[in-house]
Each structure stands twice: as C-alpha cells, then as structure tokens.
Amino acid sequence: MKLKKNIQLGKINLLIFIILLVFSIKSFSTEKIYEGNFIELKVLDKISSKNYKINIKIGEEKIFKNISIKPLKCKNSKFDDNPEIIAYLQVKDLKNVDNDEVYVFNGWTFSSSPSINTFDHPVYDLWLVKCIS
Questions:
Q1: How far apart are CA 77 and CA 15, in angstroms?
Q2: Which end of the chain has fewer CB within 10 Å, C or N?
Q3: In what order do the strands lie in the sheet with 124-132?
C-alpha cells in the first residue's frame, strides 16, 4: 500500500517538474522575432549598373521600372550579434504582358544567404536589407 502511494507521489512530482521545466525554457528563450511594417530592398539595375534603395509597405505593391514588387511578410529575428532577416516577396515582370499572372519570384528570401532562394531576372537583382517597424 505504501509503495503505491510513493509511486503516485513520484509521478505527480515528475509531472510538476516537467511543467516547470517547460515554462522556464520558454521564459529564458533569447530569440525574439520582430515583424516589420515596411521592407527595405536594394535593387541593382544590371544594364545601367546603378543601385537603388526602395522602401515598400508590407502588403502593398510597388512598381519599380519594369517589375512589380509586393512584400507579404518581413521578419527580423535577433539573436547573438547576427540578426537574420527574412521576407516573403512576390515579383512580376511587367514587360511580359502575355501572362501577367505568373511571378518571376514568389517565395522567401534571406538577407544573410540570398543564394538559398534566388531571384533570377535578366535585368534586376534584389537584396533584402532590413525590415522597418
């Protein structure tokens, strides 16, 4: 009889310990994610070799020369000394009037590693600079 009570008490203590451990890990997490309201992009015109910095509000479409850029999400995750900035972009080529529903680029882009999901366009290059609150 005493053995069953000790086993039940041990199970309750173990459950309380696990719950406290989970809450303490969540409260001491150092990674914070900040979502921005604007996105800053650097655009390179390969023909003229000029760089441009443009700011676009999240959810709004901006026409830059022959391309249309629409950011849907932008996040800064700050950890250590090197924050990772990611953004979800949709880019259309406006010169291709035959098919205006197809995106030249539709996906996530990373500021630290733009080669993971590359923006491939014959005239323009895009780089994610930062998210602005």
A1: 32
A2: N
A3: 50-57, 38-45, 124-132
How far, in Å, are 6, 90, 111 from residue 99 at the CA level?
72, 15, 29
Residue in the structure block whose two tokens are 């969540």: 26
Per domain, the residue ranges of the chain are: 1-30, 32-132
| Nearest alpha carbon to residue 79 among 130, 29, 25, 21 | 29
CA separation, residue 132 to residues 77, 82, 92 (Å): 13, 17, 23
**Which pLDDT tens digit goes with each residue over 2-28?**
656 666 766 676 667 677 656 655 544
pLDDT in tens, 22-77: 665 554 444 455 577 899 999 999 999 999 999 999 999 999 988 999 999 998 87
Cα distance between residue 92 and residue 99, in whole Å = 10
Strands 124-132 and 105-110: what pairing? unpaired
